[in-house]
Specification:
Blueprint lengths: L1 H8 L2 H23 L5 H21 L5 H29 L5 H14 L6 H20 L2 H12 L4 H8 L3 H28 L1
Helix pairs in contact: 1-2, 2-3, 2-4, 3-4, 4-5, 6-9, 7-9
């Protein structure tokens, strides 16, 4: 699929260089990305973006260390995806918190997690957030966990879920609400732990 797209837009020598690069790095690069995202579909989307950027850059001139460049671009795209997903999740957690102080604390936490700076500290906090999120998800009843994962992490709508499960939309919305309340409590605990450090 990638090769056909590139063939149509690239001169012959650059085209063969890109095809060779895809053959050399494609499999390992996909494995690298797959280890850092939640689904095969996300990994394939990111890999497609990497190849698209590679084909654009190679048009302007050669890349000295192709492998290093590819992994760096892949890593940046993974970080962007996590940041966007974290922003959506944190919006859900912060919106409608039980009290003004709690909402303010979680909004502060959101600004810490979503800062543009990429220091070892912010990287650690982001990893901790995802780790704690999945621990908290494991504590939920299976049906609540499933609705949250489908809706927040896999972008499946409530209408699609209703078709898949046979449950009505209101029941699914209610399950997600309970999941969000539980996760919000756990996020508050994480915030308190971090602010004590």
């Amino acid at each position: 699929m990638h090769n056909t797209l590139i063939t149509a837009v690239m001169p012959e020598d650059k085209n063969s260089h890109i095809i060779q690069t895809i053959k050399s790095y494609g499999k390992n690069l996909l494995s690298f990305i797959r280890g850092k995202v939640k689904s095969d579909a996300d990994a394939e989307d990111i890999l497609q973006d990497v190849w698209y950027q590679f084909s654009s850059v190679i048009n302007a001139g050669p890349i000295e260390q192709t492998g290093a460049w590819l992994y760096k671009v892949a890593n940046n795209k993974i970080t962007d995806k996590h940041r966007k997903k974290s922003e959506t999740l944190l919006d859900d957690m912060v919106t409608g918190s039980s009290g003004d102080d709690e909402e303010e604390d979680l909004a502060d936490f959101k600004s810490i997690l979503l800062t543009e700076s990429n220091t070892p500290e912010t990287e650690y906090l982001r990893n901790l957030f995802w780790e704690q999120l999945f621990f908290a998800l494991d504590e939920l009843p299976a049906k609540q966990r499933q609705v949250f994962v489908w809706n927040e992490l896999e972008d499946i709508s409530f209408a699609e879920m209703a078709e898949m499960t046979g449950d009505n939309i209101q029941t699914l919305v209610s399950r997600k609400r309970y999941a969000v309340l539980h996760l919000r409590d756990r996020l508050k605990e994480l915030y308190n732990e971090i602010t004590k450090i």
